[in-house]
Fold:
Amino acid sequence: MEGHQKKIETQLLIIGGGATGAGIFRDAAKRGISTVLVEKKDFATGTSGRNHGLLHSGARYAVKDPVSAKECITENTILKKIASSVVEDTGGFFIALDDSDLGYSELLIPALGKSGIAHEEVTLESARRDEPHLHSGVKRIIRVPDGSVDPFRLAIMNIKDGEAHGQTAMNYTEVVDSRIHEGAIEWVKVINHFNNEEILIYPEFVVNASGPWADVTAGRLYATMKMKPSMGVMVILDHRVVNHVINRMRMPADGDIIVPGDTVSIIGTTSRPVEYHELDQLKATPEEIYRMIQDAEKLVPRFATSRMLRHYSGARPLPDVGKSGREVSRNFLIKDHGQENEPRNLFSITGGKLMTYRQMAEKMTDIIATRLGNQNNCRTATDELPPIKKSKIKIPDILKNNYGIQQGYQRQGDSFLEKIHGKKDTFLVCECEMITNAEIEYVLETNNIKKLTDIRRRTRLGMGPCQGTLCSVRTMEISGIKERPFGEKETMLRDFTQERWRGVRHVLWGDTLRNEEFALWLYSGIFGWKAEK
Ligand SMILES: Cc1cc2nc3c(=O)[nH]c(=O)nc-3n(C[C@H](O)[C@H](O)[C@H](O)COP(=O)(O)OP(=O)(O)OC[C@H]3O[C@@H](n4cnc5c(N)ncnc54)[C@H](O)[C@@H]3O)c2cc1C
Structure:
């Protein structure tokens, strides 16, 4: 209902701040389309923040899904150029452990050639020079151009670039209702979950990029988008046991990928259908987690004695095409709702992968631009994200040997350097990920931070071996937070530790258990917290 709400007019409204929505936001903004993006939680808290972070070469799909394989290798090459601050060119190994894997290698090698994916045979001896922990009984190894990507910063950098082009992105803002007038969406109502403000957005076009929630969102827009979300579990180890992406040489199955990501290694994953009501609180079973660890040990026996940091789960936004989980192609789908007697200015975009987000965004924005009569070309395949090393400002001499500042520059780009200019001293807040007070101040000032966990997504605070035990408390003393009332700070800290705890509790043994005991002593000493069941 229209009332006293604030009103915004825009050419394009994007619903969902995962990689897909963020990519469309950047693309549209660079073409000069007036755009508003709304995200019900923080950016990249949906599937885009809950995946393996594998920059696929396409090899995983080459045998069964060559369309996806070609999409992957095209985007792999582009992202290594335009997103070097969030992508690591690790390379990947496909490993055969038994005769069945060897049989698969005879299918894989010609399929790699057909999809244009560079590959070479590697001896165990040379592979073990880089990867000493590989199983000694490996029978065959193929090297492919896989890599790893920080999914949080990938999405957030796209959002920031769109904002730098004058457009608006709102986190913690949910689409709850809409009104249809003469066959089109007239307005969409959103609610800001922090101040309960309601806003009516009047868009010319709406893109539903709400991932596995696409059907629920479509319902609020008087449309349908049938989905079949499929959940996958991942386990994080406390350091980089491997430096390449390690894939088992077989048809995609459970527990057959290990990805090195920044300071940790991630094992994954599983596939099982989940219902919509489970999407906001996905729950892995202890059996799924143990199976993951056991499967990974077959590739890298060292995992048997490594410390597990935590586990997490995500839901693949797969459209319902009558198949389930791994049977569904990983290429993407755009639905023009107007073609099916639903609102004529509404599109939904689902499926695909994190690492094909840019291509998905380009196709979607092409359609919107054509409808709007906008003739500007897509520039996201060539323009760097974010600009790095183009700044005329240099790291101040006094901070030149400061590794934390260099890491901050790598993570945040030129604008971080511009902000810290003139700063004389900094200190490390997080030793695991080398994060300084300067970087935290920077994201607090520039990134619409509402919670401690929002800082984590932008800097990796709390993602390393201590899982935030020390740095979360220290962050409370950073000026942007220090001034807030004690109760608010304690709530922020509780949210942060609860979120970490959900992932830690199923891997509580050995050193992980010791770390948690230490965290409990610390928090009970400072805040009087007690252990809860
Ligand atoms: C276990 C697993 C492992 C994977 N591994 C990889 C990998 O290694 N490499 C790879 O490339 N891909 C991988 N993927 C796939 C990839 O993660 C997804 O395809 C991609 O992240 C989907 O992004 P998205 O933006 O479409 O959806 P999401 O990231 O889910 O974004 C949708 C957003 O919409 C928001 N939203 C929902 N409803 C509303 C509403 N009413 N109002 C406002 N906002 C709303 C949600 O909060 C969410 O943030 C993996 C997926 C899974 C599940």
